[in-house]
Design brief:
The chain has 169 residues and is an alpha+beta fold. The protein is 33% helix and 30% strand. It is built from 6 helices and 7 strands. The longest helix has 15 residues, at 102-116. The radius of gyration is 15 Å and the shape is globular.
């Protein structure tokens, strides 16, 4: 349960472009700019397919608030092809549900999924003004390296061991 009420989190299924598209449609211009690194009016068909491509290296979880048929948010990670212990992470929570604990719930689920897949570190590129995403990452991981440049923040963070994750649940 989150401050948004009853919350269901489930894995994104392969090819569920309509879920990705629904989250994107419910993001305002600022949320889109913060998530995608600039103004973005639409997602192309290939971008939708890429974001809905889940499998061995790509994982995503989706949150739904009770009483709302549309997804409230999505979080994903992609395992690095050269270092399977590291994954790039991203998250988006629709505007009407931001600040209600959904991002934290999604990130906790994603981190548990990442750990189960053998991931030990998360990497994220965060818009420089998006302090909330940096704070969210700090709630689920330990920041190892942070670099500022070009209007963005590059972060590498260690995720807790499986035993620590179980104690925190």
């Amino acid at each position: 349960m989150s401050r948004a009420g009853m919350l269901a989190i489930r894995p994104l299924r392969l090819g569920e472009t309509e879920v990705v598209e629904s989250v994107f449609a419910r993001l305002g211009p600022l949320s889109r700019a913060l998530r995608f690194g600039g103004a973005k009016a639409t997602l192309s068909g290939s971008e939708l397919e890429t974001l809905a491509d889940v499998g061995e290296r790509r994982h995503a979880v989706v949150a739904f608030v009770a009483g709302d048929w549309a997804p409230a948010g999505i979080a994903r990670f992609v395992v690095d092809t050269h270092d399977r212990s590291t994954a790039e992470v991203a998250i988006a929570v629709v505007d009407e549900h931001q600040g209600r604990g959904i991002g934290k719930a999604l990130m906790r689920a994603l981190v548990a999924d990442a750990r189960a897949a053998g991931v030990e570190r998360l990497r994220a590129t965060i818009a420089g003004e998006n302090r909330r995403s940096l704070a969210l990452l700090r709630t689920v991981a330990t920041i190892d390296d942070i670099r500022f440049g070009g209007g963005s923040i590059e972060v590498v963070a260690s995720i807790p061991s499986p035993s620590t994750l179980l104690r925190a649940a």
